[in-house]
Structures are given as C-alpha cells and as structure tokens.
Amino acid sequence: MPKDNGTKWDRIYVAVVVPYKAGTFEIDYECYRRFLRYFLQPKFVDAGGGIIVNPEAGEIFYLSYEEKKKIVEIAVQEVNGKIPLFAGAFGMTTEEIVRDAVTAKELGVDGIFFIPPTGSGDITYAWNPDRYPEVWLDVFKAIDKAVDMPIIAHPTSGLSVYGVGLPVGPTLKICQEVKNVVGWKMTYSYYGWKTVAEGLRSLDHHVGILGAPSDLWHVFFYKRDV
Prior knowledge:
Elements: E1 12-15, H1 29-39, H2 42-46, E2 49-53, H3 65-79, E3 85-89, H4 94-107, E4 111-114, H5 134-147, E5 151-153, E6 156-160, E7 163-165, H6 168-177, E8 181-186, H7 190-201, E9 208-211, H8 217-223
Parallel strand pairs: 1-2, 2-3, 3-4, 4-5, 5-8, 8-9
Antiparallel strand pairs: 6-7
Helix pairs in contact: 1-3, 3-4, 4-5, 5-6, 6-7
C-alpha cells in the first residue's frame, strides 16, 4: 500500500457537472474552466476541498473519449496541485474503463473515481454482489494494476436493507484486495451506513468514509474514531 494512503485523501469532494452551450450538445469548455475556478477559491481550498471530474453527475454517460480527456486536461491545468483531483473512469467494457484511468493518470490527476460498470443502473441493479463480487472486483483490480494510484469508489448496487450501496461483505473484500481504495462513497440507508462504516473501520488500513446524503453525517461521527 502506498505510504500516503492514510487520511491524506479524506476531503470534502465536489463532483463537477458539465456545462453545455445553449441549445446544443457541445460542451462549453470556457464555462467549465470558470466553474472549476469557483471551487478553487480560498474558502473551499482552506476547508479541505477536493474535486472529482467526469463523475456520474458530470454527464459521463454521454461523453466521448476525447471529451472526457479534454475535461481532465482542463481540470489538471486549473487545479494545478492546489487540492486533490480525481477523475472518473467509465466505459461499457473493462478495457474502456482502464483506458480512461490510464489517460487520466498520464494527464496528471491524483486518483481515480471508480464508477460502476455501465453506471449505477442496468447491470448494477440486477446484480447480486454478495454472490458474485468479481463483477466489480475484477474491474477494480484491472484499474489498480494499470495505474497503481488512489481510488475512490462509488459503490451503488440493487436496493436492499443497505439502501442502494454495496453490502458490507463485498465492500470489505474489495478494500482488502485492492489496498489503493482510499475512499468509499456512502449512498446507504441508516442501517447500511452504520454497518458498512463499522466494517471499513475494522480494516487494517484506512479507507475514508465519504458521505453522499448529508442527513446521515451523524452516523459517520459516531464511528469516526473507532
């Protein structure tokens, strides 16, 4: 495990959306630069901010490889090392996902934001992660082998007692086998959040608990120092 995988990546991350030119499907890259600069103001930087580009919220399903690459190029230029920068890796195949990750690393990001294969719907919602953890784990390992850098996970799965987040079993299996996972996005119900948070805190290395819904922050604080 890299030596800097402790709490270095525990940040307040913002997932940056993609602006389009009015009435078109053409990305407004200059507007995108201005949007990034908004989050690079001292208040956000000093608060411990971090930026994720090409996330699910960033129109990732509709972008070409060249568009995704251009967005990362701009983000690297604008962020310029001020705060951590993670880039989403998404595709319909493992090869496409790895290509995105390798490109992002070559362009200079700090880490990869892992998006479920085909996103948070379709296969993900029809998948039994307890029975077939390899559906995700194999992709995680492929990314890890190709880039060997920090990974934040966006762990959605089918609706269960956990909410829409990945159950604790496959969560711990992934984090144990891919030590570069430094953050786990919490999309869970109260039960899921508490159970998965306790599981993450039982690991022999640190994985950041990154809250998506703000209404369950108190659960994070409950187990923070365990």
